[in-house]
């Protein structure tokens, strides 16, 4: 029996959710969106305090990208001193059910840790 012919395809056709994963699950996107969804409108310094491990430069880059993608809104207040606030947009809020589903899956992380430990033990045993 012959193997079926393999044809090249774009990543989007091979996995239609790949572009969504690229947008939503980049390194800092989920903590930023989570924070804005959970705590509402925030200034830059508030976001930075909540996501303490992110650098200001990276936070700025991610906020700009999220604004470009339409997932957050940036409001500039022409005051002295100027004030800028970030808020999750309706489009960003529409990701809520997906995040809720992922949160429901989180108890499985213990099973993942067990599977990794089992795999690592097996790998160490076979390397001897």
Layout of strands and helices, then pairs:
Elements: H1 11-14, H2 18-24, H3 29-39, E1 42-43, H4 44-50, H5 56-68, E2 72-77, E3 83-88, H6 90-93, H7 96-105, H8 109-127
Antiparallel strand pairs: 1-3, 2-3
| Low-confidence region ranges | none
Biggest pleated-sheet summary: 3 strands, antiparallel
Number of helices: 8
Q: Which strands sit side by side, in order, in the main sheet?
A: 1-3-2
CATH class of the domain at 11-97: Mainly Alpha
By DSSP, the count of extended strands is 3
Structural class: mainly alpha
CATH superfamily of the domain at 11-97: Winged helix-like DNA-binding domain superfamily/Winged helix DNA-binding domain
Beta-strand residue fraction: 5-15%
GO molecular function: DNA binding
InterPro entries: HTH_HxlR, WH-like_DNA-bd_sf, WH_DNA-bd_sf
Pfam families: HxlR
Protein name: Transcriptional regulator
Characterise the protein shown here.
The protein has 128 residues and is mainly alpha-helical. It has a domain at 11-97: Arc Repressor Mutant, subunit A (Orthogonal Bundle). Helices cover 59% and strands 11% of the residues. It has eight helices and three strands. The two termini are 40 Å apart. The model has no long low-confidence stretch (mean pLDDT 91). Residues 15-114 form the HTH hxlR-type domain. InterPro entries: HTH_HxlR (IPR002577), WH-like_DNA-bd_sf (IPR036388), WH_DNA-bd_sf (IPR036390). This is Transcriptional regulator. Keywords: DNA-binding, Transcription, Transcription regulation.
């Amino acid at each position: 029996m012959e193997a079926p012919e393999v044809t090249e395809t774009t990543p989007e056709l091979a996995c239609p959710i790949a572009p969504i994963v690229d947008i939503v699950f980049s390194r800092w996107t989920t903590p930023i969106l989570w924070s804005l969804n959970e705590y509402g409108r925030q200034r830059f310094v508030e976001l930075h305090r909540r996501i303490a491990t992110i650098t200001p430069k990276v936070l700025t880059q991610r906020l700009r990208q999220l604004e470009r993608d339409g997932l957050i809104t940036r409001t500039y207040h022409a005051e002295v001193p100027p004030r800028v606030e970030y808020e999750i947009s309706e489009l960003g809020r529409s990701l809520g059910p997906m995040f809720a589903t992922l949160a429901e899956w989180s108890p499985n992380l213990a099973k993942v840790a067990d599977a990794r430990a089992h795999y690592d033990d097996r790998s160490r045993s076979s390397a001897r």
